[in-house]
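Moderator note: this is an archived Q&A kept for reference. The question asked for a predicted structure of one protein chain; the sequence and the answer are reproduced below.
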Amino acid sequence: MITVEHHSKIYEFQTLDEAMEWAKQLGEFVTIKFNDLEIAGKFGVDGISGGKFSNGELYTWKKRRRH
């Protein structure tokens, strides 16, 4: 049994694929637990394109190099 925790509620799934697909569609931070493992995050998030996140916010982080 795979469990997904979202906003303090627990949802159960038969397979990890089902749990991951649900988490991707939800698009919010969740914790997936299975086989004594725990994976937490926002699944299915798009990358950065044109200097912006998929929600339109600007991506402003820059790596600073030391000389």
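Archived answer notes: Residues 16-26 form the longest helix (11 residues).
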